[in-house]
Amino acid sequence: MKGGPRITGLHLYVEGFISHLNIQEIIRYLQRWMKGSDIAFRGNFFRHHLSTRPKGVTPRRIQRLAQELVFHRIRDATRRDSGDRRPMEVEVAYERRRIGQEDFRSFGILYDGFGLQRIFSGLISEDERYLNHCHIIFTNQLLGTWDEDDHRYHARVSVYGFPSLISTTGVVEAPAKPREFYLKRPLGIPLEILKDELRGRFIDHGDSRLTEILKGYVIQALFFQMTGDPFCDDPQCRLYNAHWQEELIRAQLDGKYEFCKSHREFLNRLAGLQ
To answer: pTM of the full predicted structure?
Structure first.
């Protein structure tokens, strides 16, 4: 497994209110592997990068950015194009609040993940648009990507690239719940009863295990930037691309080991352990 340029700057951000996210614990985890890298939490992505641009934050710039965010909302999961409908003022106002409030809460809106990624990328200063800089954003917004196989958008936990986006809402909503959930739900069994029956087999909103789970997705983002491949075929490895909640829990929480042999050796080299 060959790596690309060494990451010298690892920048972490949040976008919106995220319960049970312990950034400092994630930084300590990254410091275990990324020896020689400057790892820093920069707070809210919008606030950090807008404040560093010429003329700073202006109402006109916020308005234009809010309109761009509205454009990447997925209104129909079976249509790839966003259409030419002009954004409503209530939608733009929502996005302005999202940009301006650090503790903004999500309301279940699905966004085109790659569209958001392009918006975020355009806000990063030119001197940090190099492969030795890794930008990772934790967002409470729900991300989706288009699937050419069934021609529809699907919710995702992460969209890797420049920058990498990790959706904490996606951790809950994207991987499928246990099969029993979909068999019993149409029978009219109340949601809370189903959740109680399946407790421990899926991740729910406000789950105290969130930070531990996100460590694995951060490592996936790093592997994408360093090697171009964020995933592993080993279901016990933290780089496994889980499509079911039970797979996610096994890979991130209950695996027999943290990483497969090849990924562990790669990380050990980064950490100077071999």
So the answer is: 0.94
